[in-house]
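Residues determine shape. We examine one folded chain.
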Amino acid sequence: MNAILVAIIGLGVFVLGYRYYSKFIAERIYRLDPNYMTPAHKYKDGVDFVPTNKFVLWGHHFTSVAGAAPILGPAIAVYWGWLPAFLWVILGTVFAAGVHDFGTLAISVRNKGQSIGTIAEKFIGRRGKILFLFIILTLVLMVNAVFAWVIANLFITYPASVLPVFIQIPLAIWIGYAAYKKNMKMLVPSLIALAVMYFFAVITAEVSWLQIDLVSYMGGEGAGGLFGLGAVSTAFMVWIVILLIYVYIASTLPVWKLLQPRDFINSHQLTVGLLILYGGLLLTNPTINAPATNGDAETSWLPLLFITVACGAISGFHGLVSSGTSSKQLDKETDARFVGYFGAVGEGILALISIIAVVTLFSSVDDFSATYSSFNDANASGLGNFVEGAAILAGGLGIPTAVATTIVSIIVVSFAATTLDTSVRLMRYIIAEIGTEYKVPSLTKKHVATSVAVVSTAALVLIPEGPNGFGSGGYLIWPLFGTSNQLLAGISLLLISIWLKRQGINYAVTLIPMIFLMFMTLYAMFVQVFFEWAWYAENSNLLLFVLGAIIFVFAIWIVITSIQALSGKFDDELAKHRNDE
């Protein structure tokens, strides 16, 4: 199969989806009002509520939700063949992700910029809200652990990426100061910052002494490291500590000082990266030799495909960002279409090139089968396959392999870091909400809540020991991350459906993807939790089983509560909150 043809079909569907379907949703379903006073203006505080240009906000929103997931998920999902992953990415983006991301942003804007977890009380009652907050808190904690684990491992694997990534931090602070204190436009400074980053990417790729390789500093892989952990585990621990110190600071600063400008730089990274990869695709004109469907797969794609692709098609975490940070920065309500729906399209475009980069890496079906011999192998090698395949595509533009590999790894790390500190900020909000709910004043304090978020993340990443040894927490919880993430998306679509129904608006556009997603997710969670007990026991990971079982039970509880809400049980409770909208 010709890879360019696959790309053209996918991109064509995305263009049509944004041009027509998102416009229909904006005008007929969510009914955006250009004169509505958004929370960013109504509650402007210069810290979290900050009216923001829609292009800058799109940069923040997209890079916050992107992370490594729209790359990693599809890179794993091609285990079942490229065709199922391709179809779910394009159809899921247009009919599920766009609707979900756009919807959670719209409902939050109409509810004081509150998070989707807080809004839940208005539609499914206090008990449903508490259950939902527990699922959200668990998911955000897993996001923190997974992305901290991914970044630390990428720094160890690609040490040339470390210096350019860390140079971005002071550059972003300079841009934030220039934009908000000197009234400069962000575009030119952010392009300069990107040029500086890539200058260092070229230099560090070729000059070994500029590469911050902690494993080598400790004597190499065979060395003992600290406390007898080994050089690799010690380097991993050091990176985790450094990352968590950074995200503590980043997630407590006002959004304009670091979050927004750094995300704006990363949005240009996305543009440059996609131009390089799609340009390389046109010039190399590769053939897809991997199978369209993998008949030798040991596990069925149904339902696991729909929780594996995750952010490449739809993700509950996107709803947390939409309702947690983006809704507090939306300048005009009509900007929600561009920020929310087009943000999802950006994810789809990235997921599409991830699929193509991976499946064009192989010269034959046998080559593919040797690498993707099992689902565990796909999990272990997916991200590395993308980096390698993307470097080959970039080579079509004449970029040296070492430089291309460094640039790709920088892009992945930058997105993952953006997601990590946004996630910690969101976790701080949720902990504060729980503190308010249970009258624990100390948890409502910014630094206390952030400390709880950071310490719990460190514990989850560093304490567990599994098949990968010390620091395998992020790896071990990945199966539960996928199901919990999609479960959250399904519940968010349920809440949006209830919101629309109460307003007398046709809610089929949210109800249909919700039913499909909830069925697939609960099916997958049931199989994973209750039929794969032997896997959990064999790997001594009882925590994963217990968390999965609790979340599954809570999910069923919330679904039942939501069905009652759809039938009108909570109409009186909703009426009490009518004036809040």
Summary: The beta strands are 465-466, 469-470. Residues 3-291+308-578 form a domain with the Hydantoin permease fold (CATH 1.10.4160).
